[in-house]
Amino acid sequence: MTDGAGDVGKVRGWVRAARRIVVLSGAGMSAESGVPTFRDAQTGLWAKFRPEDLATEDAFRADPKMVWDWYAMRRAMVAKVEPNAGHRAIAAFQQRHPGRLTVATQNVDGLHQHAGSPGVLALHGNIAEDTWLEAPRACCTDANLLPGTPPRCAVCGNLRRPAVVWFGETLPPEVLQAAQDAALASQLMLVVGTSGVVYPAAGLARATPGRVVVINPQASDLDAVADAVLRGGAAVLLPQLLEEHP
Ligand code: NAD
User: Fold this and answer.
1) 37, 54, 124, 195, best to mutate for ligand 1 pocket (most atoms within 8 Å of CB)
2) 1-34+83-124+171-246 architecture in CATH?
3) Could you give the CA distance from residue 147 to residue 54 in angstroms, rounded to a whole number?
4) Is 112 among the catalytic positions?
5) Mean pLDDT throughout 16-28?
6) Global confidence as pTM
7) 17, containing H or E segment
8) Which of 20, 35, 123, 142 has the lowest tally of Cβ within 10 angstroms?
9) Dihedral sign for Cα atoms in the order 32, 114, 204, 94
10) What is the pLDDT of residues 6-16, one digit of tens each?
């Protein structure tokens, strides 16, 4: 493992040499866009709750309005932010090199997609979308949707919920499979802005046969498996690594 400014040049060489690259991103990827990481997210009204206690199916069933309101606050925040230079550097690289770089993200903010990254593997869903809490019945249609916090089916009472993967839930199998396939086929994985404690996403970095580069201003659980650790922010380092003439 290495750590320091000189390593940027070395990792740029690895980027040039790799036929297939995966970017595995977490909340720190969007920090410089102004989206708080989970560790920093608890302000104001929500300071007394832990995200791990709100982002669960049990919490939603116990108090659907409270969890819906928390997501409404996060949705409103995400709707106001823009992709940063890191998101844009990744998307520009993908456009210059079609099919060479896959983004697998734990983020639900949609900023990679907004920056123009194609085929983003959104491991934990998208906060801008809803889905049904229970498997939808024939009556669960838009026409029967009753507004509310949360909206519900006017006929059977089925609730709408955010289309994100909550703690304790399974990732969408086809998305996880595609991310695993990409990880296994890659020669280089850039692990950006993740503490590396949420599985199975973190397992992708442990499974890849290629080199692993961690990009994070702080220590993370994946530093131990990294071939290089770059201490810095995503919006600064990714353009240096991915742009042709930074
Ligand atoms: P995390 O909050 O556990 O860790 C964030 C990591 O980002 C930390 O290691 C931190 O040091 C690092 N970081 C902070 N600023 C950075 C920067 N400028 N550049 C690079 N790294 C930076 O996040 P996680 O590992 O993604 O896991 C938490 C879970 O919370 C995930 O499942 C994720 O889906 C969810 N989450 C998503 C968002 C979002 O969509 N933006 C925000 C908060 C949490």
Assistant:
1) 37
2) 3-Layer(aba) Sandwich (3.40)
3) 22
4) no
5) 97
6) 0.93
7) helix 6-17
8) 142
9) negative
10) 799 999 999 99
pLDDT, one tens digit per residue, over 126-152 is: 999 999 999 999 999 999 999 999 999
- E-assigned strand segments in the chain: 21-25, 101-105, 121-122, 125-132, 145-146, 152-153, 160-164, 188-192, 211-215, 228-230
Q: Is 124 in the pocket of ligand 1 (CB under 6 A)?
A: yes
User: Does ligand 1 have an atom closer than 6 angstroms to the CB of 107?
Assistant: yes
Q: Is the CB of 27 under 6 A from ligand 1?
A: yes
In the chain, what are the domain boundaries?
Answer: 1-34+83-124+171-246, 36-80+130-164
> Is the previous residue joined to 136 through a cis bond, with omega within 30 degrees of 0?
no
| CB 106 less than 6 A from any atom of ligand 1 | yes
Picking from 55, 65, 63, 111, the residue whose alpha carbon sits closest to that of residue 86 is 111
Domain 36-80+130-164 has CATH 2.40.128: no
Tens of pLDDT, residue by residue over 205-221, are: 999 999 999 999 999 99
Cα 167 versus chain centre, distance: 14
Selecting among 87, 112, 124, 245, the annotated active-site residue is 124
